[in-house]
Amino acid sequence: MLRTLIPGRLDRRAVVAAALALVFAWFASGCAAPKPIPAQPRPFLFGQDTFAYANELQWIYYFDEDGAWTHRRNEPKPDYTHHCFVVVRAAKQFFLSARFEPGQPVADETTYRRRIRAVMASDPRSAAPDGEKVVVPGYGSLHEFSAAQERVLKEECGSFWQSYFQRGHWRMIFPFSRRHQAQTAGQLLASVRANRPAVVHVACFPSLRINHALLLFDAQETDTEIEFAAYDPNDAQGPTRLTFDRARRTFRYPTNRYFPGGDVNVYEVYVSRCY
Fold first, then answer.
1. Closest among 163, 160, 172 to 15, alpha carbons compared
2. Range of the domain at 55
3. How many domains does the chain fold into?
4. Predicted TM-score (pTM) of this structure
5. Gap between the Cα atoms of 198 and 107, Å rounded
6. Which residue from 194, 122, 115 is spatially nearest to 156, judged by alpha carbons?
7. 7-63 pLDDT per residue, tens
């Protein structure tokens, strides 16, 4: 999603107004009580549980000759943009609620559309029992399935509007204390250690440098930091990292092709937890 969703030229008052509307929508819908999710039997694996395709960028970002971070339109215009929340949410849903059966014959398109819709209707906050998982015949993993059925998955996994109006966006507009970020880091560490991948919203609001979703699936811990391995929906080639600095109680996201690098605020979405 990123600043590609809200270019810097847009009046920030409009952004705040839209965010406040999301707050009212959240409180109107209620807030679920915390619900523990059991540990999953296996870890989330990049290249197996990730999509073979990426969410594309509408803008190309770069440092200009004066060292300023700027952007220009990506030409030709890509046809699959603003789906970052959709991609990582769907990856989590397939991990929790689908079972791939490569020994079964490849099915027809209608069958796959029905199975994908069933996965998308599942709760991304909890895992389906083994006997209730949606069976995807003919493929051994989401990566293999999405390489062969890219068009069908893009059409059925969700609209880009689901990235705009994800219910948890209300949290982005309020301050993030260092205590909150330390608690978040601890909760995320516990989740990935239990093989529960976590979708996080990464933002710098009211700055529009980044407004993005990642899926965290592993972590390495030292006395000074926690380095989370992350699935970036903008990059299908390999994982990235999100680092928590214990002393500063702050998350850092590295420089890449859409973000200049630096401190970010992080909170989990698609989780049964109030903020």
1. 172
2. 45-164
3. 1
4. 0.83
5. 31
6. 115
7. 333 344 444 444 444 444 444 333 444 455 578 899 999 999 999 999 998 878 878
